[in-house]
Give the backbone structure.
Amino acid sequence: MERKLTIGQLSELAGVPRKTIRYYEGVGVLPPPGRSDARYRLYSDIDVRRVELVRRARALDMGLDEVRELVKWAGTGSCNDFQERFQGVLHRKLEDVDQRIADLEHLKQDLQRLGAHFEMSQREADAGHTMLECSPETCTCLGAAGKDPNQLQEVKLWLNKSESES
């Protein structure tokens, strides 16, 4: 006879809070559980494995739609079918991570350039006005003031001004 688990037992065995289990049921990642005569949720050992799969997939930064599909695949078809499908998901996830890393590297470079620019501009005299009153072409607090054209372009980009607006 298959053992029946309460939501508390499932939570403890799978390492996921009860509230999270109810949330995943509500959004369709997990199927609705069986119920006792008293209407308590009842789970099986398969549900433990299912919740562990969801937890591990979320730890891999998979979205709810991806996890929902993964849970569906895990409950249908053979292990080989699941592995083939899962490898496709992993491949796409790796491509996403590579793109995010490239985006973060670009952001890091932008931040470093801007930081270096502002470090240089701190050596300038106090302009006596606010940042919002600055003009990229003339403001010394931004360090541009007609000096290096690359610095001027950097300041314009940071202030979200195009060449045509100047």
